[in-house]
Amino acid sequence: MSTNTETLRRTPWSGHADDAEIAHWSAIAQAVADTLATDALERDRANATPRTEAELLRSSGLLDLLVPAEYGGGGGHFESAFHTVRILATADGSISQLLAYHYFNQAGIGFYADPADQPAWWRRTVQGGWLWGDSVNPVDPTLVLTEDGDGYRLNGLKRFSTGSGVGEVIIVNAIIQGGTEDGKVLAFVLDTAREGLELLGDWDHLGQRLTASGSVKYTDVAVLPGDILGPVTDEPIASLLTPGVQLGFGNFYLGVAQGALAKGRELLLARKNAWFLSNAASYSRDVVFQRAIGELKARTAAVEALAEKLNRRFDAEVARSGTLTAAQRGEYAIAIAELKVVATETGIEVANRIFEVTGASSTANSVGLDLFWRNVRTHTLHDPVDYKKIEVGAHFLHGELQPLSLYT
Q1: 263 and 338 inside one domain
Q2: Which of 194, 228, 333 shows the shortest CA–CA distance to 2?
Q3: Helix count (H) and strand count (E) of the chain?
Q4: For residues 147 and 154, what is the distance between their CA atoms, to the nearest angstrom?
Q5: I want to staple 132 with a disulfide (CB 3.0 to 4.6 A). Which of 91, 106, 122, 268 is the partner?
Q6: For residue 244, what are the CA distances in angstroms to 237, 307, 367?
Q7: Residue 338, domain extent
Q8: Do 146 and 255 fall within a single domain?
Q9: What is the pTM of this model?
Q10: Where is the Acyl-CoA dehydrogenase/oxidase N-terminal domain (predicted)?
Q11: For 83-135, how does the pLDDT look when each residue is reduced to its tens digit (9 = 90+)?
């Protein structure tokens, strides 16, 4: 790989999304969300590999939103990407997650690859129409790379490999064992048809059923020099990728809450008559139900305000590129942890308590209101939110930052 980092920028993004850009991508995302909403429940129950949904993302242009325009991409900013994730989550949490992970898997080009090598990677992803899956779950047995000529051999197993079952490529993090680079961690990209790469298709969970998040087994998989993005380091700009992923989670949870509220409003307005102890003309005119839905709406609006602020800030932090300091990165990660806490709790609360205003009839399987709760309940277990609370508290009390990891 080239090492001409002195004359080229570390990351290809700069500036902010203007109103026209956000409106453009939001309109596309809404059109996709409207399509997904027509049969979200049926598709969830079928629990099939989301190939049709992946093609919808591809044909809409959303997959290449973050790819610089000079390489054939959409030339968008992260703020637009976060908006897109949120909009899709109002209709289909699974496909929202699939796209959110794709964005940061693909963005690994800008965070890990040498600047001189990035143009070729960007062109490859656009020309190939790649949806990027991942295989980086840090709590699984560690994948191991061993030297093999001028490349490596990869062995091991990774569960929770989101997008792997439907993506053209998978980004992988693995540690080198033995040789002159012993202990070094590399980020690299494998096509899913690579010999020795086995997609186990074992994802069958309560929610987020269409994220193609099954396990991947690697048996003597050849990793060639051209597959390698770069080393995984603690450099502030490179490690900013993880807070970005967490910010994507916050937007996803917010979108689920907004979707549950919209569905709940629809059901509440359709309810006839009123509770027999009420003097109201209808359930939607009953102050008991107005109070409940008003509380949920207000809390969701507060989360949205925080998300909007942090979404825009992400582009500013990324634009610092190689000048981003560890302190700046750490302080921003804490702000994102604050969002993660309130988005998690609000998403779960809204998806749960919306039943209080929609009544017993809304628990019918044909209604599918449970889909919002199942999706947000499943994904909010990705990493314990209590540890995010501890991160926020430790920083507020003592100015402490957590050690770098794939969760912080």
Answers
A1: yes
A2: 228
A3: 13, 8
A4: 9
A5: 106
A6: 11, 12, 34
A7: 236-398
A8: no
A9: 0.95
A10: 27-103
A11: 999 999 999 999 999 999 999 999 999 999 999 999 999 999 999 999 999 99
Query: E strand or H helix at 125, and its extent?
Result: helix 118-128
- H or E element, residue 296: helix 287-319
What does the pLDDT read at residue 323? 94
Let me know: does 210 contact 43? Beta carbons within 8 Å: yes
Q: What is the 3-state secondary structure (H, E, C) of 88-106?
A: HHCCCHHHHHHHHHHHHHH
Give strand pairing partners of 187: 173, 230
Q: CA 186, 189, 193, 195 torsion: positive or negative?
A: negative
Same domain for 92 and 203, yes or no, is no
Do residues 146 and 153 lie in contact, with contact meaning Cβ atoms separated by under 8 Å? yes
> Tokens at residue 268, please?
């509440």
Spatial separation of the C-alpha atoms in residues 227 and 117, rounded to whole Å: 11
Instruction: Assess if residue 12 is contained within a domain.
Output: no
Amino acid making up residue 5: T
Same domain, 256 and 342: yes
